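## retry 2 of 3
previous attempt timed out at serialization; input unchanged, resubmitting
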Amino acid sequence: MPSRAEADVAAAQAALAQAQWKLDQKTLAVPSDALCSTRVRPGEFIAAGQPVVSLLPAANIKARFFVPATIVPQLRMGAAVKIEANRRRSPYCRARHLCIAASRILAA
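## retry succeeded, writing output
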């Protein structure tokens, strides 16, 4: 028959396992880099099971933008670019040049 101390240890281990399971249920993990976009606004009520974020894999993110012709000679394939969007809260994202056309760059 287990002693009182052994029973206390077993109970503590069971409580720890339950606490870890509850924490795991509240922890989100994404398998790879992704852009996270929220689908709800502060103060908005949501139903149980309703999606609150969308994840777009980083490999699927493309930006098409135009630059003045005077800047095009300064651009190099594979060089880092900083993309800022006026209407987004996040100030910028980083990208690498994939294609330079006569008046535009496609970045991912």
